[in-house]
Structures are given as C-alpha cells and as structure tokens.
Amino acid sequence: MRAELDLERLYRVALRIRLVESRIAELYPEGKMRCPVHLSIGQEIPSAIFEQVKLPGDTAISTHRAHAHYLAMGGDLPRMIAEIYGKVTGCSKGRGGSMHLIDIEKGFLGSSAIVGNSIPVGVGVGYTKMLSEDGGVSFIFLGDGAVEEGAFYESANFAAVHRLPIVFILENNLYSVYTNLGPRQPTSRSLSELAAVIGLKSEKAEDSNFQDTFMKMQTLATYARNRMGPTLLEISTYRKLEHCGPNDDDNLGYRLERETKEFKDVDLVQRLEVLTGKSSQEKKKISAVLNQEIESAFEFAETSSFPSYVEASEGVYAS
Amino acid sequence: MQVNSASEILRVLERNLRDNPKFLIAGLGVTDPKGVFGTTLGLEEKYGSKRVLETPTSENAMTGVGVGIAISGYRPLMIHQRLDFFLLAMDQLVNSAAKWHFMFGSQQSVPLTIRLITGRGWGQGPTHSQNLHSWFSHIPGLKVVMPSFASEIAGLLQASIDDPNPVVFIEDRWIHNLSVEANDSRIDQSIQLGKANICHSGNDITVVSSGYMSVEALKAVSFLAKHNVSAELIDLRTIKPLDLDTILYSVKKTKNLIVVDSGNEIASFGKEIIANVAMAIDVPLANPPRLVSLPDVPEPTSHGVIGEYRVSATKIALSIIEILCVDTPHDLIKKLTPFKEDVPDSSFTGPF
Question: Quick one: which of A102, A177, A188, B246 is 20 to 30 A from B173 by CA?
C-alpha cells in the first residue's frame, strides 16, 4: 500500500488518459469510430488517483463513461481503441463498443451502457470476494445519476447487510446527460451522507484536492480490504466536453456561469504539470512518448479486421 | 413411496450444494419457515447462510448480484416465489444476464439459474399469476425451461444448473404437488435442454404444450384416446431452445395442430410455434391450426369467473374434437376438470 500520493505518477496517468481521449475526439469526425463515446476529459483525476490505490487481486466495474477507469485499471489500450473502431481485435471483439469495455486479466470486469446497471454486478463480485476470502476489493464506479436508480440503493443496502469488501467511487459531475442535479435531487442532501445512512462508510472529496482525495480513497479502500464493510467516496469532478461525443458544447448554454469559471476553465492536468515542476521540454518529451503509444494503438485499430457476422452470432450462448 | 415435484427440487438443490462448493442459492424466503413451498427447507442449516442466502426484497439488484457471482466462477440459483415480482429485474435479466457473454466478446459466461414460480391457486389475480415465458423467450442469450411432470423435474433442473448460460426455469405452482414413484427410473435421467418429449403418441392431431398445460393436455388426450381420438401430445420441456424437429415430424404425420399456451394470446409463444410450423412444413394441414391460450385480458381474481378464463383439460379436449369434427359426449369432457379451476386437486385449501 502506498503511504503518499505520487504526484509524478498521478500526472503521467492523468495526462495519458487526457491524450487518449483527445485523440479520440480529434479523429472521431473521420467517421471510423461509429459508436457513442462518452469521454472523460475533465474527469481524469479520480481514475488517476484510483490507479495508485488499487492492488493486485482487486477488480473494477464501470459505467458508460469507462475509458479512464479502464485505462487506470491497466486495461489494454490498443484493444480499447480497436473496440471503439468495431474491430475483432477489440476487447469485446467489436460487439460492445466504447460502453462495454473489459480486460479480465487486469481485473476490469466490464462496463455498462445502462445507468446503474453495473452496480449490482460489482456487488455480486464483492460477494464472491467475501466467500473466497481472497483479500481483494471490488471497486464500483458510478456517477451522480446512478444514485437516482433503485439499483444503487438496493445494491448498497445488500453490500451493507453483508459488510462486503466493496468501494463505490461516485464521480459527481453534476449532470445526468444535460440535466443538472437541481431538478433531480434535493439541493440540501449530500450524496455521501445519503450513502452513509444506507450503511456505507462514506467520504466526500474534490478532484482538485489531489492529496485529500487520495488519502480518503486509500483509507476507504483499506477499510473495505480489512473486511470492515463497504465504503463510498464521492468525488466532485467536471466533464468538459458534451455528454456523448467529441465536441465542446458551450453552444447549448446549459452550464451555469459559475461552473464554467470554477470547473470547466480549470485544467487539473495542467495544474499537475506545474506542481511537478515540468519544464516545457520535459512536458514535450513525456507527451511525445505517450503520443507514440497512442498512435500505435490507433494504427492497430485501423489495420485490424472487422468481426465476421457468423462469429459474432455464434457468440450469443456459451457452450 | 411417492415423491412430489417440490421434494424433487429440494433433492436437486441439496445434491448440488453438497457436491459443488461453488453452487449457491439465493432468494427471498429461502430460509423462512415455509422454504419456498418446501423446495429449500433445511438447506440453510446444512450449508450455511452464505450459500443459502436470504435476500432483501430487491429483485433487480439481486439479479445483478447473481450475474456478478456467476462471472466470478460460481453457480448461483436464484428464486422468486412469484414471477410477477421478477418483472422488477428486467434490466438485469435482459441487459446484463442475457447479453454478458455476447457483448464482452464471449469471454465470460453467466451460469445463472432463475426459478420463477407462477401462481394459480386461490384468487391469484392480475399480478400474481402471469405466465410471461413468451417475453423471456424473445431475448437472445436466455434459455427458458418449463417443467411439467414430477418424473422429469430433477433432470430439467439439473440440466439448467449445469448449463453455462442464464436459464429461466418457470414452475407453475400446481406442478409442485404432482408425484411420482420414488424408485421410478426416469427421475434421475439426464435431460438435454431443447429436447421435447412425446408423452402420448397418436396419429390424428398434434397437441403441443409446456409446463402445467402439459398436465392438463395429458388428461385431455388420455380421455380422448378412450373415445377413438388419437392425439399426439408433445411436452416441450424447454421453449428455448425449441425442439422444432419433433413438432414438425409429428405434424407431418397428423396434419393437425393445436398449441396450448398458458400465457395471453397476443404475441404468444404458442403463435411462435404455429408460425414456425407454417413456415417450415411442406405438407398442407388438414385444418387451420389452433391456439388454446388465455384471452387478451388480465386474470380476474374472482373464483366465480376463473373457470371461464383459464385453460383446462376440458377446454383442450373440446378444441380437439371441434377440429377433428368428432362426436364425443360433452358431459364426459366436462368431468375432465372435476374441481373448480382455482385448485389443482381436492387437497389444495389455499391461500397461496
């Protein structure tokens, strides 16, 4: 277990996610990635901190906005890009697309397009970790919208009843698609307090406070790891691009002015560059290495074949 | 000595808990004093509360939990005492369980069995008696099993548990009381999912049915056999996968078809069978095929009208003689359903 947050590593992991997502956004208009993409630009920090908290034997499960979680868990980059391109070399053989990523070897057990849908599955995984006493933790990523689904309440309740080794990482980006929390939840009610009442040991953090978010995530993960019970960390974060797709969406005018100033215009990856004292030359060098890796992932995707219809249709049932 | 279907289910669950440490059962009531109509009694005491898991009243999440357990190398079996409550779990059934294997590139399978019990006793009414097997059969990735007779329920349940895919196992409440001799050689035969059974041979008409409807249909065809009507009864056992070959082979011989479906008529599985026969068969039928099912009406609760609503041996027999234009005494046919239609036999005294 890591005692302190490694800022250098946080920077590199967050930057890698940023560059991958930016390249997807850049190339998306070519029309070769023909599936919905929910990009994590602006929401890199929770995943990059998670990257320093997870341990071998842990598993993670995620949502429609899964790229950052998958990459932070160590998911194979070329296979993720190939999946978005709909190629047979994709992590789901082209049957799942951006919203259905998986890398079993790395413990990334899947992601779901339906809000709240993957939460109980992650709880089931946690139940088997309790049965097998293998020491691992089941991490479940979710957003503020999923808290409005019955599946969240039902799952958290069951996890609490059985004190399962589960950490819920709740990224609160204030929006469900383009609808602010205002009409969706009582303004006076905190998500982490709600979770605490259900029976999850809960904390709240802001992604801009790297150290605090890390310490809280680490503490909550250790709590679950020591079989004390399930936990939840609510992290305030902010999505910079449109809900689904590669574009800036300021033209829609739905963001509050305060949010634009406090969150959208603040670049936490840049802040990490400053905090880690990167010279512009070092910055270029790190980006160049990452971009090379990313380019080869895109090339892998571009040059891979599409799945055959026969092969795909034979994959419905296991034998 | 006789055993009934409920005790047969209990025997299979016990055997799997004993032999496979990765097998577990879960559901609301699996540890309660009634033990899901006696089918889970005593299991918690023997195998502990982690593998005989009492659950919160959370159908949707618990189904997802079952998926999570299944992809982790375990074999969960989940139980719902009324199918109607399971409607809250459609997201996890349809979007998770059924598609997991396909949408993640066939890397993980979901060996999850879901026992759903359909109500038929006293006044089960609009929301306690629905037969929605047709819905489940519509979803790629699911298998749908509908056991009928006590001699086969163990084999069908074991095949469902052993299957690497999610299986919806639909038990009509009234099959629980059906019995068979304990030393009957059939009770431990292995049964392949997707293989129908001809439970009464005949030449004049093919009757296709499943679940409890096969019990009623068998009464009807056995009676008619004594009155020179030779009907062939095919008990599907599993509606998905469907054993179309056995149906076609029989219909080619009899040139007449009746399908009995315990669900409502519109978009029913019965019509799926009729459509399949119409599309596949290369000999003309002697008469238009017929569907005997529930009307497009929810089940009324009143026992004053339930007899008109439900499908019984009498209705099936009347349909058969109507198609074949044979003259069989109606008063005798009416005696095929000697009890009120809200009880399976004289021993049933409600309420559930």
Answer: B246
Residue A314 lies in a domain: no
How many structural domains is chain B composed of? 2
B73 touches chain A (CB under 8 A): yes
Q: Give CA–CA dist B297/B309, Å, rounded.
A: 9
Return d(Cα B86, Cα B135) in angstroms, integer.
12
Q: Do B12 and B68 share a structural domain? A: yes
A102 in Cβ contact with A96 (< 8 Å) = yes
Strand A59-62's sheet: what is its strand order? A108-111, A59-62, A138-143, A166-172, A231-236, A201-206
The backbone torsions φ and ψ at residue B284, rounded to the nearest 5 degrees and listed phi first, read -70, 145
For A274, list phi and psi in degrees, rounded to 5.
Answer: -70, -45
Q: Are B180 and B207 within one domain? A: no
- Average pLDDT of chain B is 94
Q: State the virtual CA torsion across B27, B29, B32, B37 in degrees, nearest 10.
A: -110
- Rounded-to-integer distance, Cα A90 and Cα A85, Å: 8
Domain check: are B176 and B212 in the same one?
no
- Of A138, A133, A130, A144, the C-alpha closest to A177 is A144
Start-to-end C-alpha separation, chain B: 26
* DSSP 8-class letter at B148: -
Q: A86 has which bridge partners?
A: none
Q: Which two tokens stand for residue B156?
A: 């069908």
Name the residue facing B50 among A113, A121, A131 (closest C-beta).
A131
- Are the Cβ atoms of A127 and B68 closer than 8 angstroms? yes
Q: Number of Cβ pairs closer than 8 Å across A and B?
A: 140
A96 contacts B103? CB cut-off 8 A: yes
Q: Is the ipTM of this complex over 0.90?
A: yes
DSSP structure string for B20-72: -TTEEEEETTTTSTTHHHHTSTTHHHHH-TTTEEE--S-HHHHHHHHHHHHTT
What are the pLDDT digits (tens) for A171-195? Answer: 999 999 999 999 999 999 999 999 9
Residues B137, B143: Cα–Cα separation, whole Å = 7
Following DSSP, what letter does each residue of A43-72 receive, concatenated?
Answer: -HHHHHHHHHH--TT-EEEE-SS-HHHHHH
Q: What is the distance in angstroms between the Cα of B30 and the nearest Cα belonging to chain A?
A: 16
Measured in residues, chain A has a length of 319
Distance from CA of B245 to the nearest CA of A (A): 20
Mean pLDDT of the residues in chain A? 96
In a domain, B340, yes or no: no
Query: Residue ranges of chain B with pLDDT lower than 70?
Result: 339, 352
Q: What's the pLDDT score for residue B352? A: 67
Alpha-carbon span A164 to A177, nearest angstrom: 31
Q: How many residues does chain B have?
A: 352
pTM higher than the cut 0.95? yes
What pLDDT is recorded for position B169? 98
Q: Are B173 and B28 part of one and the same domain?
A: yes
Indicate left, alpha or beta for A267 from its phi (over 0: left) and psi (-120 to 50: alpha): beta
- Measuring CA to CA, which residue among B65, B69, B61, B14 is closest to residue B42? B14
Q: Would you call A121 and B50 a contact, using CB atoms and an 8 Å cutoff?
A: no
* Segment A194-227, tens digit of pLDDT: 999 999 999 999 999 999 999 999 999 999 999 9
Q: Is there a single domain that holds both residue B157 and residue B36?
A: yes
Distance (Å) from the alpha carbon of A273 to chain B's nearest alpha carbon = 36
Angstrom distance (rounded) from CA B83 to CA B128: 7
| Beta-strand relationship, B23-27 and B52-54 | parallel
